[in-house]
Specification:
The complex is a heterodimer of chains A (349) and B (265).
Chain A: H1 21-24, H2 32-39, H3 41-60, H4 68-93, H5 101-117, H6 122-145, H7 151-170, E1 175-176, H8 184-190, E2 192-193, E3 196-197, H9 199-216, H10 218-228, H11 230-235, H12 240-266, E4 268-269, H13 278-287, H14 299-318, H15 325-344
Antiparallel strand pairs in A: 1-4, 2-3
Helix pairs in contact in A: 3-14, 3-15, 4-9, 4-10, 4-12, 4-13, 4-14, 5-6, 5-7, 5-12, 6-7, 6-12, 9-10, 10-12, 13-14, 14-15
Chain B: E1 4-15, E2 18-29, E3 33-38, H1 44-51, E4 59-64, E5 67-68, H2 74-79, E6 82-85, H3 97-101, H4 116-129, H5 148-160, E7 166-170, H6 178-193, E8 197-202, H7 205-211, E9 214-219, E10 222-228, H8 235-246, H9 257-264
Helix pairs in contact in B: 4-5, 5-6, 8-9
Classes of the chains: A mainly alpha (349), B alpha/beta (265).
């Protein structure tokens, strides 16, 4: 082998004091901004879509978009979506999908409603709802992972099955929970601080925590690796099945919180609770820049996606267009975002 | 004489009536690079799988540093300091180099959160140890952006983590261009320079010839030849020998050199 064929790989000379490992590898032309943009391009792309969309709405009707009322209504309902969008980013990154979360929302909030109606403290109800959500998530996850089923079909089936159970037992009847309004739980989870709905603070906390879990925790690292190359993960000693079940349990927890929050907003539990969230939540995940093929994703992007999707409806109506335009704009934003992300992020194989 | 790191004695493996290996002896000393050669179906893969504990031998003995080991398994193999870089590279290509190196054994601190800076430092050290440095990528680059040879570098860096003493490279240069192969050889030499042993499996004799201290040629489940580098004059000698083994009775004479080389690949 001739010397010229050797690649140009040189040890840094020993005499030069080494800064930190991170600095040492840095390309001279690298700027921290460049790295930041490259690392977060999916989320930033989603943010750009959101800003452009809001700008269009504001130009169409400046007066409505400067009133606080509009934002307050979005900030009340948005958190419900956020609690399921974020865990779904984990599921999609892991190479799976979960369509059973609307029924889990309904089921867990049903347990919450039953506990509250029986006269127990709402905190106990929340705990019961969380346990229900975890169990349902575990059930769905085990079915998919250990049953070796396609998550797309199996979770769709579970969604119908669980919703059917709720309908059969309740015969379509709702539950009014008026006692909630003067409970501590309501003050903490569903009131307003300085005119801002508190739900949004809990949701932001959840997003931040989940983003850390995704980017800076062993769980998130293993979820990404499993979604990227499950065979490799298995070879390196990761319990792939366990990781997969865990992401479904996470969705169960998120759905339980979301369901409980939606009941606390309305003081009423409906047997259809959660049903309307299926498509907007899925759209949010993909609008947010998490690709369908697994291995990568963005929690913050998903959150921005959820904000975008929830502003479409409000925005279209507030901008003076009739409600008939909502679906059209929903579709437009989804397609434009997907095209944008396709151009924005390369797929490595 | 260097310390004997691992020794496989009289290893046999049969799948039902079919013998994959029939009494193979193989040993690797500390700091030695052994080239394991053989045609497709010679039993190389089976031998590697036995060495890494994935497959259990039907009979035979495994000795680690001269001591016989019972209950050989994948975990035991790792404990003994054997790390295998499998043919398909087994990398998660959408993740960073750091994430691949620490796959399944993340460095974590408080409540399972990653110690990101420690991981970067450690990855950086491992990469430098095998001469895997560059001006165009960092430990935080995505593996998918790297070339084939560089990806092997990631796999090798991952293998030497945790004080691995024997690195098993299963055909690391298959399907790589000449320059990429050169990169892999560069990493392999660095690994050897660090005092680790290497078992280099290949069917391209030229690739193995350049870096091995000793050759073991497998043929139909048996060791056909064990020889030191010094005893072989050129790669062609080895090719001729393998031809002779594969087709006893001078069938090799029917082929010209180019043809033989092609088959050796």
């Amino acid at each position: 082998m001739s010397k010229t064929m050797e690649p140009d790989l040189h040890e840094p000379s020993a005499g030069i004091p080494r800064p930190s490992a991170q600095k040492e590898w840095k390309h001279p032309s690298d700027h921290w901004m460049r790295g930041f943009i490259l690392d977060n391009r999916a989320a930033l792309g989603t943010l750009a879509v959101f800003i452009v969309m809001m700008a269009v709405f504001m130009i169409a009707n400046p007066t409505v978009f400067t009133t606080w009322y509009l934002y307050r209504s979005v900030l009340t309902t948005l958190p419900v979506a956020l609690f399921v969008v974020v865990p779904l980013v984990f599921v999609v990154t892991c190479g799976e999908i979960d369509l059973s979360f609307p029924a889990t929302m309904g089921f867990a909030s049903w347990v919450f409603a039953l506990v509250v109606q029986a006269g127990y403290d709402p905190f106990l109800g929340i705990a019961a709802a969380l346990v229900t959500g975890m169990l349902l998530g575990f059930l769905v996850g085990s079915l998919v992972v250990y049953g070796g089923l396609s998550s797309l079909i199996a979770t769709l089936g579970m969604n119908f099955l669980l919703r059917g159970l709720i309908q059969i037992i309740n015969e379509g009847k709702s539950m009014a929970l008026t006692s909630l309004s003067d409970s501590w739980a309501y003050t903490i989870f569903s009131s307003q601080v300085l005119g801002i709905p508190v739900q949004i603070f809990w949701a932001i906390g959840f997003v931040v925590l989940s983003a850390m879990l995704y980017n800076r925790h062993r769980f998130g690292a293993q979820v990404r690796v499993v979604g990227d190359n499950p065979d490799s993960a298995q070879q390196m000693g990761i319990d792939v099945k366990r990781v997969r079940v865990k992401v479904f349990v996470f969705v169960g927890i998120g759905a339980a919180i979301a369901g409980t929050f939606s009941v606390m907003i309305n003081f009423t539990w409906w047997p259809t609770a959660g049903d309307g969230y299926l498509l907007p939540v899925l759209a949010s995940v993909f609008v947010g820049g998490t690709p369908t093929w697994g291995g990568i994703g963005t929690v913050v992007g998903g959150a921005i996606g959820a904000v975008t999707v929830s502003f479409i409806q409000t925005g279209v109506v507030a901008a003076g267009l009739s409600g008939f335009y909502v679906q059209f704009f929903n579709g437009l934003i989804i397609i434009l975002s997907l095209l944008g992300h396709k151009w924005n992020q390369a797929r490595y194989r | 004489m260097a310390e004997r790191l691992i020794e496989l004695r009289d290893i046999s493996k049969s799948y039902g009536q079919v013998y994959a290996l029939g009494g193979v002896n193989l040993s690797v000393d500390r700091g030695e690079v052994v080239g394991l050669l053989g045609d497709n179906g010679a039993g190389k893969s089976t031998l590697i799988k036995i060495l890494s504990g994935v497959v259990k031998p039907t009979s035979g003995e495994i000795l680690v540093r001269g001591k016989p080991v019972t209950g050989w398994s994948a975990a035991r193999s790792r404990e003994a300091g054997i790390e295998t870089v499998f043919q398909d590279r087994a990398l998660a290509v959408q993740q960073t180099i750091v994430r691949n190196i620490f796959m399944g054994r993340e460095l974590t601190g408080f409540m399972g959160f990653l110690r990101v800076n420690n991981e970067i430092e450690e990855a950086s050290r491992l990469m430098r140890e095998i001469g895997f440095t560059s001006k165009v990528f960092t430990p935080q680059s995505i593996v998918g952006q790297l070339s084939g040879g560089e990806r092997q570098g990631v796999a090798i860096a991952r293998a030497i983590y945790k004080q691995a003493e024997l690195i098993v490279l299963d055909e690391p240069t298959t399907a790589l261009s000449l320059t990429e192969t050169a990169k892999v050889f560069h990493f392999v030499r660095q690994v050897r320079a660090s005092g680790r042993s290497i078992l280099f499996i290949g069917h391209n004799i030229h690739h193995v010839f350049d870096i091995a201290d000793r050759f073991v040629v497998l043929d139909r489940g048996k060791v056909a030849l064990t020889t030191d580098r010094s005893e072989v004059k050129s790669a062609e000698d080895l090719i001729n020998f393998m031809e002779e083994v594969a087709h006893p009775g001078g069938l090799a004479g029917l082929h010209d050199a180019g043809d033989a080389e092609q088959r050796a690949r």
